[in-house]
Each structure stands twice: as structure tokens, then as C-alpha cells.
Design goal:
2 strands
């Protein structure tokens, strides 16, 4: 057994010792378009990539900076290398969360030039939490408590071919790329 995963672009990526030179947006877009939200426990397939695209579109609709749009697009990018673990279990895995945070900081450094500030993280969390609220309501049919979060975009939970999601992800990345 090896200490690495082989990515879509053929890189050998060591999750426990990541090399920022091996982080590729093509790997992120491809993998996230194939990873299902909610650990697959949804009424219809909805990818992490689609979720990230919605978060980025919401950031843009709110008038946030290109950097914040890109941060929203990339906020789950570590899952392309580490997979998605449901929060109730993830919170019991402090070492996993530490690796995930370090990898995400590396991804932000590579594509945004620096990690997020506390204010930026707060803005991102607000958008991510709003999208989660709708994901739970619509994809699980699970009634959420509290006020319905206001969105500035229309949500469409139609199942889409993963290649279309992958291409949309890459187009958004290119449009808002800072580098």
C-alpha cells in the first residue's frame, strides 16, 4: 500500500504530507462533482461541487469580492483529497479536522494568496449555513427550525451530469481567479 492517493490528473498526493504544487483545480472540480452531499443520504444526487457553485453564486449575488466568491467555491476543496465526513462524526475526529484545516489553508494560500481572515470566514460560514439549511429542507425533506435564510439566488436542485458541474466549477474558478 502506498501513502498517497492518485488524483484525476495523475498526481500522487499525500494527504498526511500535502505538497501545494500537486494541488490542481482540475482535480478539485472533477472530484467534487462526483462526491454526493450528505454522505449520499439525500433524495436525489446533489454533489459537493454543485453546493460550492451555489455558495459562490450567492456570494457574487450578495456583492462580495471576487476573493470571497472564489473562497466560497473552494471552501470544501479539501474533500477532494480527504472525502466528506458527516459533521456528527467529524467533530469526534480532532486529528482529521486538523489535517483538513491545514489542507484548506494550503488551498486558500495557493489560489487566494492567503488564508481567510476571521471576517471572511464569518461571511463564508453564513453562506454555507444558509445553503445547508436549504439542502436539509429540500434534499432530505427535513423541516428546519428558525427563520428561512434569505438567498439572493434561485436554487435549482435538478440532477445534472457530473461533467457539466465540473465544467461550471472550472468556469467560475477562471472567471474569479485572483492569480
Amino acid at each position: 500500500m502506498s501513502n498517497y492517493i492518485t488524483t484525476f490528473t495523475g498526481n500522487h498526493f499525500e494527504v498526511s504530507d500535502p505538497d501545494p504544487e500537486k494541488i490542481r483545480i482540475e482535480d478539485i472540480a472533477h472530484a467534487l462533482s462526483l462526491i454526493c452531499r450528505g454522505n449520499g443520504h439525500v433524495k436525489t444526487f446533489w454533489s459537493v461541487g454543485q453546493h460550492c457553485i451555489n455558495c459562490a453564486n450567492e456570494a457574487w449575488a450578495r456583492g462580495l469580492s471576487s476573493r470571497m466568491v472564489l473562497a466560497c467555491l473552494l471552501h470544501d476543496a479539501s474533500e477532494c483529497y480527504m472525502s466528506d465526513i458527516p459533521w456528527p462524526f467529524k467533530k469526534e475526529l480532532p486529528e482529521y479536522r486538523e489535517h483538513e484545516e491545514q489542507l484548506l489553508e494550503m488551498i486558500y494560500e495557493k489560489f487566494l494568496g492567503s488564508p481567510l481572515t476571521q471576517e471572511e470566514q464569518t461571511q463564508l460560514n453564513e453562506i454555507d449555513d444558509a445553503m445547508l439549511w436549504y439542502d436539509l429542507e429540500i434534499l432530505l425533506g427535513e423541516k428546519q427550525s428558525g427563520e428561512t435564510p434569505e438567498l439572493h439566488i434561485d436554487l435549482d436542485y435538478s440532477v445534472r451530469p457530473f461533467r457539466d458541474v465540473e465544467q461550471d466549477y472550472l468556469k467560475l474558478f477562471k472567471r474569479f481567479s485572483i492569480n
